[in-house]
Amino acid sequence: MGRGEDREGVAAAGGFFWSYTDEPHATRRRLILSKYPQIKQLFGPDHSAFFKISGVVLLQLGTGALLHDAGWLKIFLVAYFFGSFLNQNLFLAIHELSHNLAFSTPVYNRWLGIFANLPVGVPMSVTFQKYHLEHHRFQGVDGIDMDVPSLTEVRLVKNMIAKTIWVFLQLFFYAFRPLFLKPKPPGIWEFINFSVQIALDVSMVYFFGWKALAYLILSSFLGGGMHPMAAHFISEHYVFNPDQETYSYYGPLNYLAWHVGYHNEHHDFPRIPGNKLYKVKEIAPEFYDSLASYRSWSQIIYMYIMDRTVGPFSRMKRKSSKAE
């Protein structure tokens, strides 16, 4: 299907793919639950989340402390080959917590998210939840879903070199896009998140020096750029097949990524924690086996950069029903 053609309610115009049907997940959720109501038994928190998050936070902060007087090359190598995996793990733990999947009481999830945020180096857990829940409710809706790249990105990122730079910096685009396009006034929880994070950063510098903090921030930057773990940003919703707007990844890195690779399953059932999403596919395979999916996140980055027909514009968008 070429851009500009119509097929099953999808058209390509202005660079993006435009859908004139509802997002697919609510419909598939209803169909699956009507056939397999036992899936509701998977709903609820992952009671091991607190212990897993605590272990990673302490391990990453401890690693930063141990590297306080290391050379910059060693800090870079440890950050890329070790710390980046830990910080992406924590970023995706924050994603889990944004859906209240560690505790039944929402405020406990928010506090755990602020704790999980500590090794990331910059405050983001509270703000992330605000925008991410809109991504689920209004997937692809123009002007609301801030997961979709901006027109500026589409206009600037048009060739292999630009896409390579974009991949290196995609974490910055992901973080700052909503702040420029759809800023939300901060509340008390953003202030708490900011205060706790700055207190941790200052403490790291005071007790262990600037290199300890630099290691944490470098781990976040490297893990969110040209890195296998960061490929989930691309694999989840970038359209390689015009008939499909959400894609799952079934490779081994799911074990480090809170199984966020099961992304069709996650959008279909956001109340199911990551460690149980594989059961959705096992119970209802006929709903997922026919969908395109991935086995390698590294391959996704290569495909994204090398394929001239793919770029920031390769996203499905739809108009808000309120505007119709």
Give a concise summary.
The protein is 53% helix and 5% strand. With 324 residues, it is mainly alpha-helical.
What's the helix count?
A: 14
- Biggest sheet: strands, sense, closure? 4 strands, mixed
Uncertain parts: 1-14
**Element order, helices and strands?**
EEEHHHHHHHHHHHEHHEHE
Shape: globular
Sheet with most strands: strand arrangement: 1-2-3-6
Which structural class fits the helix and strand makeup? mainly alpha
- Radius of gyration computed on alpha carbons: 20 Å
Mean pLDDT: 93
How much of the polypeptide forms β-strand, as a percent range?
A: under 5%
Alpha-carbon distance between the two ends: 27 Å
Could you say how many structural domains there are in total? 1
GO molecular function, one term: sphingolipid delta-4 desaturase activity
GO cellular component, one term: endoplasmic reticulum membrane
Family: Belongs to the fatty acid desaturase type 1 family. DEGS subfamily.
Membrane topology: Multi-pass membrane protein
Characterize the structure shown.
Pfam families: FA_desaturase, Lipid_DES. It is a multi-pass membrane protein. Sphingolipid-delta-4-desaturase required for the biosynthesis of delta-4-unsaturated sphingolipids and derivatives. The radius of gyration is 20 Å and the shape is globular. The chain has one domain. Helix 2 crosses helix 10 (210-223) and helix 3 crosses helix 5. The longest helix is centred in the N-terminal third of the chain and has 27 residues, at 72-98. It has 324 residues and is mainly α. It is 53% helix and 5% strand. The protein is built from 14 helices and 6 strands. Strands 1-2-3-6 form a 4-stranded mixed β-sheet, with no helix packed on it.
